[in-house]
Amino acid sequence: MSLADVVRKAESKINAFNTHRSKKSGWVPSVIGYTGYGNEEQVRVFARVLMRAPHREPRTAAARGFRQFFTIQVGGFPVRVTAGDKTIEAVTDDNGYLEVLVEGHGLTPGWHEVTIAPADSPTEEQSASAEVLIIDPSAKVGIVSDIDDTVIVTMLPRALIAAYNSWFVRTDSRKAVPGFSDFYAELRRRHTPNRHTLTQTPVFYLSTGAWNTFGTLRRFLQANALPKGPLLLTDWGPTPTGLFRSGQEHKRVQLRNLFIDFPDIRWVLVGDDGQHDPLIYGQIAAEHPDRVAGIAIRNLTPSEHILSHGTTFPIDRLERTHVPLIEGADGYELLKQIDKLP
């Protein structure tokens, strides 16, 4: 039996014990909705079911980061998802997560709310709404943005620094990398004839960060005037093949999903050179040159590189690609080169 198997079994037993104990204390399964996305034919809905104490006061935005990681997930929990004209039933996975594809929803382009509720005897307290973005069929260019060390200063995924930023820094004190609000606003303006229909230039935030940080990240984006968009996060738990999920594979899978769901959109991929974004984006561009409109890389400082991975220089270089590439220390430097992108 591998170490990953041992950890997964231990995690399952601990969670089962906590679930039983919390139920005896009056806690109930409650849904948390995440941002989803889709087109006029289908929409992806993301959510999670966790145990929650009834009538608990909501945590403030300034709470210590570690509080968002203390959760009791509810696996195998049946829910009912309603998106527009369509209602389907689904079941959460072992970690309480839900990702479903709802077809024939009848929603128009723009932001909408869908409802996720327990399939049996749902109550308002246990149910949740989740925002979904239906992309305008006229969209030709979209943006995929990394988060950590690209638009937010976190020095991830170096273990000790990551733990400090995620667990101990107050969730309303994260610092933004300068200039990205202006850079994204100009990118969207260039590809949106009508400023009132910004679904024509969608922005997706693709990160190896945990779903537990969803609320914190959403508030951060809003507070720093970054464009609203679906967040595509991951789960840090053990898998059948390892102690942690592969962040690189998570990004590749999510990018390929976007390519499949939106075959007419070409994407500007934005990341940083602190970890593997140059390698991932370069490989994706080489595999799908017709789907990548350009690549923008934020260059970390030598001190940021040391905190990120222990050396003063990038650990990965961008593979040779024929798609337009710009690099800079922050959003303002990228904005100066924006004419190099489509």
UniProtKB/TrEMBL annotation:
One of its GO terms (molecular function) is phosphatidate phosphatase activity. Residues 141-299 form the Phosphatidate phosphatase APP1 catalytic domain. This is ABC transporter ATPase. It comes from Corynebacterium lactis RW2-5.
